[in-house]
Automatic annotation (TrEMBL):
Any one GO BP annotation for this protein: thiamine biosynthetic process
Biological or metabolic pathway of the protein: Cofactor biosynthesis; thiamine diphosphate biosynthesis; 4-methyl-5-(2-phosphoethyl)-thiazole from 5-(2-hydroxyethyl)-4-methylthiazole: step 1/1
Function: Catalyzes the phosphorylation of the hydroxyl group of 4-methyl-5-beta-hydroxyethylthiazole (THZ).
Organism name: Clostridium ragsdalei P11
Catalytic activities: 5-(2-hydroxyethyl)-4-methylthiazole + ATP = 4-methyl-5-(2-phosphooxyethyl)-thiazole + ADP + H(+)
EC number: 2.7.1.50
Cofactor: Mg(2+)
Keyword Transferase attributed: yes
Protein name (database record): Hydroxyethylthiazole kinase
The UniProt record lists the keyword Metal-binding: yes
Alphabetized UniProt keyword annotations: ATP-binding, Kinase, Magnesium, Metal-binding, Nucleotide-binding, Thiamine biosynthesis, Transferase
């Protein structure tokens, strides 16, 4: 990919701010407000439309659909399937966050149904979830991955080829691939694991980036780098979880292309 460089990754931030993509988030009840606020700070327009009677029509006017399976109710399950169908019909990009799929068999069943009736452009999960979906053994505890990351990129590549999509496996290092091109991001701070919803917020950012950029791989890399750089900036000012969480939103708002280019620790594979 000729335009695969830190400049193109950083430019996605400006594309988001210029386009103000409308991102419909069907997400878990723990992090709805966090996802909405971080999207606003990033420059996007958040919507939390998950009512079964509304999602089909709302998705078709959205820039992207973010599906998070964290606290999946029967009502949400029905809405997710219908939203996925609408996204496929109307060619709206879909980001899937397969929360706890390695721990709860029902989640895998719902993912299979989404793949049957709809489409997924990006799968963003922790290393354990990605390994599980790729058919590899994984070490998880509920929604958390206990995996050390070994073999994560190979699993992500296999999953990307299986579904013809972008896959991001997050952890101490983040692995992103479209099956042909791959990167490893080494930014971020451990404090991101000490607040609720950092992964959910990241998924929402992926929705905004993909809703504003035609290149889904570069957009995903940009969203993940943005979250990590913002985390590093926030930790400079706040070294405890409560204040860090607030400062993280501020740091997303204060991001610039220059900060991404200067601070990005990316290895191209």
């Amino acid at each position: 990919m000729d335009n695969l460089n830190l400049d193109s990754v950083s430019k996605v931030l400006t594309q988001v701010k210029n386009k103000v993509p409308l991102v419909d988030c069907i997400t878990n009840s723990v992090t709805i407000n966090d996802c909405a606020n971080i999207l606003l700070s990033y420059g996007a327009s958040p919507a939390m439309c998950e009512a079964y009677d509304e999602v089909f029509d709302f998705v078709k006017i959205s820039s992207a659909l973010y599906i998070n399976l964290g606290t999946l109710t029967k009502e949400q399950e029905a809405a997710v399937i219908l939203a996925s169908t609408s996204a496929k019909i109307h060619n709206i990009p879909v980001i899937l966050d397969p929360v706890a799929c390695a721990a709860i068999p029902r989640k895998a069943q719902v993912i299979n149904r989404i793949m049957q009736v709809g489409k997924v452009d990006v799968i963003k999960g922790n290393v354990g979830e990605i390994k599980f979906l790729a058919g590899q053994s994984s070490n998880v505890r509920g929604v958390d991955s206990l995996d050390n990351g070994e073999g994560a990129l190979d699993s992500a590549v296999a999953l990307a080829k299986k579904y013809n999509c972008v896959v991001a496996a997050t952890g101490k290092e983040d692995f992103i691939t479209d099956g042909k091109n791959s990167v490893v991001i080494q930014n971020g701070v451990e404090m991101l694991t000490k607040i609720t919803g950092s992964g959910c917020m990241l998924g929402a950012l992926c929705g905004a980036a993909i809703g504003a950029s035609e290149n889904k791989f570069i957009a995903t890399v940009s969203a993940i780098l943005s979250m990590n750089i913002a985390g590093e900036e926030a930790y400079k000012a706040a070294k405890a979880p409560g204040t860090f969480r607030v400062k993280l939103i501020d740091s997303i708002y204060e991001l610039t292309e220059e900060k991404l280019k200067k601070g990005g620790k990316i290895t191209w594979k």
